[in-house]
Specification:
This protein is of the alpha+beta class. It has a single domain, classed as Lipocalin (Beta Barrel), CATH 2.40.128.110. The chain is built from two helices and eleven strands. Strands 1, 2, 3, 4, 5, 6, 7, 8, 9, 10 and 11 form an eleven-stranded antiparallel sheet that branches. The longest helix has 25 residues.
Length: 203
């Protein structure tokens, strides 16, 4: 004869408790990452992304809202993958007038294209602490191949200094600002603080 639970809460508790016990080891494994693969975390509060354009007046600034991920498939440094996503509307030049112009249709057009992104496709080691990173850069909905240069330093907490130069006209930013002479090339620099939180060190 089948024995019934004395209360509904007791009947419900048993399958839930069994499910928790089954899932617990898998959640712990996920937090640790795949065995033998380094896992890094970017400390956004200690990192930044800036840009500068040569012009008859200063046009330089930073982005306040962005995210970055650095992943590897093995301890080999050249298996790295870097993905950066920037909210274009978070541009900050220190000038409300310049911010408004950059957010407008002639430049970032943030209402139509809210995100700027770089996704790496290849890491090439060029020296003991330097890399060239090929990738796809997207801004204003236009994607082109671009190249980053990286300088890596530090132990435990790794510091990554990066730079990239792109031509704004390749992305449809052909217009200028009245009475201001603006160069075509935009210099982008960034500083990332990355911490290894699991897995072995990079080889």
């Amino acid at each position: 004869m089948t024995r019934f639970c004395q209360t509904a809460s007791r009947c419900l508790f048993r399958p839930i408790a069994s499910l928790v016990i089954l899932l617990l080891p898998f959640s712990e494994m996920r937090a640790q990452g795949p065995e033998g693969i380094p896992v890094f975390e970017i400390a956004l509060a200690e990192s930044w992304i800036k840009f500068n354009v040569k012009s008859s007046t200063t046009i330089a600034g930073k982005f306040d809202n962005w995210d970055a991920r650095l992943t590897f498939t093995s301890p080999d440094e050249t298996t790295g993958a870097l993905a950066i996503k920037i909210q274009a509307a978070s541009v900050d030049t220190g000038s409300g007038l310049k911010n408004g112009k950059l957010k407008g249709k002639d430049f970032f057009d943030v209402a139509t294209y809210p995100e700027i992104a770089f996704t790496s496709t290849k890491f090439v080691k060029t020296g003991p602490h330097t890399f060239e990173v090929d990738g796809v850069f997207t801004i204003r909905g236009v994607s082109n191949p671009e190249k980053l240069t990286l300088v890596v330093s530090g132990k435990g907490a790794t510091e990554i200094k990066g730079a990239m130069v792109f031509n704004r006209k390749d992305y449809g930013m052909n217009k200028g600002i009245p009475f201001i002479s603006i160069a075509d090339h935009v210099d982008v620099t960034f500083h990332l603080k990355a911490r290894r939180i699991a897995g072995p060190p990079l080889a």
